[in-house]
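Whiteboard transcription, Tuesday session. T.W. wrote the structure tokens on the left side:
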């Protein structure tokens, strides 16, 4: 039976890979993201799309209304929207403290607030029993992210997921987190990653390779399956062992 799957950040990278996996399994997919043109270019057979800024409550309400009209219930909710703010305007002025405040605020909004708002807006529509809520975190939540802002924002997903799992568990809904490491073929690093940094990230893994969006997508697909029905409130590492360090 086809399920209704909502994927934030579904136009590129991990979100797009997940959308293709779910669609290939016969599920109905809704792609949500800020850039309408990116969503329209996404090659996902039969997928619907809804352009929205998920940090804006009015836009989130509009997505919820769209879901209500097109889907009714939501079987799987995947949060893959996020990033370090490369598409955001820079901080105004040259004050370094203002730059810190801007960077932390942007990362909180992109990686944590978007997920919380969309979840809360759709919580009552989650299929009961059998619903799935899935968050895409990051290895940075464990090992840092340079500035700290991105890793801290992703880490904030973890207690939220645990609280949701307890809240939604009586309805037969599971809530889990996937924490990828270095994933190639995404927009995360903007242009091409520095070769020395790429080598260092790969050397951190136990299996000696970079991850790809499909690695994460297949994990999300499994966590949404009936076979993972007793798996909840977990953080699944998909980073080739890099979270353990070298």
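and on the right, the sequence the group agreed on:
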């Amino acid at each position: 039976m086809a399920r209704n799957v909502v994927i934030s950040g579904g136009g590129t990278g991990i979100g797009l890979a997940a959308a293709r996996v779910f669609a290939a399994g016969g599920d109905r997919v809704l792609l949500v993201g800020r850039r309408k043109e990116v969503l329209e270019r996404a090659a996902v057979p039969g997928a619907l799309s809804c352009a929205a800024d998920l940090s804006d409550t009015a836009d989130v309400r509009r997505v919820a209304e769209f879901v209500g009209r097109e889907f009714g219930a939501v079987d799987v909710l995947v949060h893959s929207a996020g990033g370090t703010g490369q598409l955001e305007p820079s901080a105004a002025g040259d004050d370094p403290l203002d730059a810190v405040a801007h960077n932390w605020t942007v990362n909180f909004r992109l990686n944590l607030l978007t997920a919380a708002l969309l979840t809360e807006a759709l919580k009552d529509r989650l299929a009961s029993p059998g619903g799935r809520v899935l968050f895409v975190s990051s290895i940075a939540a464990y090992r840092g992210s340079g500035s700290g802002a991105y890793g801290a924002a992703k880490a904030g997903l973890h207690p939220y997921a645990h609280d949701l799992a307890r809240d939604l568990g009586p309805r037969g809904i599971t809530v889990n987190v996937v924490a990828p490491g270095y994933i190639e073929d995404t927009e995360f690093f903007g242009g091409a990653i520095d070769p020395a940094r790429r080598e260092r990230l790969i050397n951190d893994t136990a299996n000696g390779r970079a991850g790809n969006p499909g690695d994460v997508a297949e994990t999300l697909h499994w966590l949404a399956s009936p076979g993972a029905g007793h798996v909840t409130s977990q953080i699944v590492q998909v980073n080739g062992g890099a979270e353990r360090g070298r």
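Someone added at the bottom: The chain has a mean pLDDT of 92.
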